[in-house]
Design goal:
alpha+beta; tt1808, chain A; six-stranded mixed β-sheet; four-stranded mixed β-sheet; 24% helix
Length: 193
C-alpha cells in the first residue's frame, strides 16, 4: 500500500473490532494510535493505588470504576453504528455514573472522570490530543498524572464547556473529589514505591 494512502486512511470502530488483540490501539477521529509498549511498574502501581482508593469508595454507590483495557466509544451523536463511530479510547481509569452507556464491549459516551497516567510513549497524546477530545465530549474531570514528577493535574469542565486552569497537586497532597461526594485521594499512597 502506498505510504500516502496509509497516512490518510481513516478508520472506524467497525475496523477496530477486526484488528488483532496482539497490539492495543486507540482510534481518535479516525486516526489509529499504538498503545505499545505495555505500561511499566511505576504506572501499574499508581493505577493499582487509584483503583483501590476510588473503587473502595464507590462500592455500593451508583457510579462505577473501570480500568484499562476498557473501550470507551465517543460517537459524535447518539445512535451511530460501528461503521460511523471513529473514536474509541482506553483511558487508564474512568468512572461512569450513567450506566445506560455500558455494554459487553465497554462504554459509549463521556465518563464523569477520566484518568491518564503519562508514559513516554503516550504523554504528548494524553496532554494535547486527549485533552481536546475529552473536553469536546464533555468529560467532567480529566486527570493527568506525571509519575516521574509525582504530580497530578485536575481539569474540570466549566459552564462554557471548556476546561479551566488545572488544579495542581504533588505527592504530599490529598485531593478532594466533590464530583463523587466526600471522596479524597491520598497522593502519598498513589506515589508510594
Amino acid at each position: 500500500m502506498p505510504l500516502a494512502k496509509i497516512m490518510t486512511e481513516r478508520f472506524t470502530y467497525a475496523d477496530y473490532l477486526t484488528w488483532s488483540d496482539d497490539e492495543r490501539r486507540e482510534l481518535i477521529d479516525g486516526v489509529s494510535y499504538s498503545m505499545s509498549p505495555a505500561p511499566g511498574t511505576r504506572h501499574q502501581r499508581i493505577s493499582r493505588s487509584l483503583s483501590l482508593q476510588i473503587g473502595n469508595f464507590l462500592q455500593d454507590k451508583s457510579c462505577e470504576l473501570f480500568v484499562a483495557p476498557f473501550d470507551v466509544r465517543l460517537p459524535e451523536r447518539h445512535g451511530l453504528t460501528d461503521d460511523k463511530v471513529d473514536t474509541v479510547v482506553q483511558p487508564d481509569l474512568l468512572v461512569v455514573c450513567d450506566k445506560t452507556g455500558l455494554d459487553e464491549r465497554g462504554y459509549t459516551g463521556a465518563p464523569e472522570l477520566v484518568i491518564e497516567i503519562l508514559s513516554q510513549s503516550s504523554a504528548a497524546r494524553d496532554i494535547k490530543i486527549k485533552f481536546d477530545l475529552y473536553q469536546r465530549f464533555g468529560v467532567r474531570e480529566y486527570w493527568i498524572i506525571h509519575p516521574a514528577e509525582q504530580t497530578l493535574l485536575v481539569y474540570k469542565i466549566a459552564e462554557d464547556g471548556l476546561y479551566g486552569a488545572a488544579d495542581r497537586y504533588s505527592s504530599d497532597d490529598t485531593v478532594s473529589v466533590p464530583l463523587f461526594g466526600d471522596l479524597a485521594i491520598h497522593l502519598k499512597d498513589v506515589f508510594a514505591e
